[in-house]
């Protein structure tokens, strides 16, 4: 059973890599098997269809982008402030940047949602659930900003990540400087 769970995880990681490299149109069971180094037909034994594969890819993206509890604990020891809020934003951007393929795969799925209602439903559920958790965390941590400001930060960070992962508008401006300016503009 453990081997099956490990193989399923490897197939999901391979699907993420395929999405990042080839986009949603390149996401086939054959491509996933090739990327995972498994025999042809393996992915179809684990996932009933492409929609199920994509649904489980969202779960795997969540696992791969999850914050390190020790880092969250370290940050939570500090007094709530706009500076702490900025450091949480930096930590989010660092995780998204470190997991480049995962972030690109997520962007690919979000773009595909504009063309595919089934994927749109998955994306909407994933985004809504994540946003609600972010609002709850922010409120629970006593950080500045409410639901509206957090939505604005989501919009800004999505744009920032798209910029940094593709063709930056201004590569000479550091990501930290951008985050500081966003925090200053939205919270002060």
Task: Give the C-alpha Rg.
Answer: 18 Å
Class by alpha and beta content: mainly alpha
Tally of contiguous helical segments:
10
Average pLDDT reading: 95
Do you know the CATH topology of the largest domain? Tetracycline Repressor, domain 2
The H-and-E topology, N to C, reads as HHHHHHHHHH
Question: Would you identify the CATH H-level superfamily of the largest domain?
Answer: Tetracycline Repressor, domain 2
What is the CATH architecture annotation of the largest domain? Answer: Orthogonal Bundle
Terminal CA distance:
53 Å
Can you describe this structure?
The chain has 188 residues and is an all-alpha fold. It has 2 domains: 1-49, Arc Repressor Mutant, subunit A; 67-187, Tetracycline Repressor, domain 2 (Orthogonal Bundle), CATH 1.10.357.10. Helices cover 77% and strands 0% of the residues. It contains 10 helices and no strands. α1 (2-22) crosses α7 (100-112). The longest helix is centred in the last third of the chain and has 25 residues, at 117-141. The protein is elongated. The chain starts with a helix and ends with a helix.
């Amino acid at each position: 059973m453990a081997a099956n769970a490990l193989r399923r995880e490897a197939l999901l990681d391979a699907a993420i890599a395929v999405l990042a490299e080839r986009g949603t149109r390149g996401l086939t069971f054959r491509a996933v098997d090739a990327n995972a180094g498994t025999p042809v037909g393996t992915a179809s034994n684990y996932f009933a269809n492409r929609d199920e594969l994509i649904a489980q890819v969202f779960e795997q993206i969540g696992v791969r982008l999850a914050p390190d509890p020790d880092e969250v604990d370290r940050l939570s020891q500090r007094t709530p402030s706009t500076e702490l809020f900025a450091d949480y934003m930096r930590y989010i951007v660092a995780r998204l940047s470190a997991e480049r393929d995962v972030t690109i795969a997520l962007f690919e799925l979000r773009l595909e949602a504009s063309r595919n209602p089934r994927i749109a439903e998955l994306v909407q559920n994933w985004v809504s659930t994540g946003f609600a958790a972010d609002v709850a965390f922010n409120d629970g941590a006593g950080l500045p900003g409410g639901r509206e400001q957090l939505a604005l930060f989501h919009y800004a960070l999505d744009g920032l990540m798209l910029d940094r992962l593709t063709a930056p508008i201004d590569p000479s401006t550091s990501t930290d400087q951008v985050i500081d300016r966003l925090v200053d503009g939205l919270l002060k």
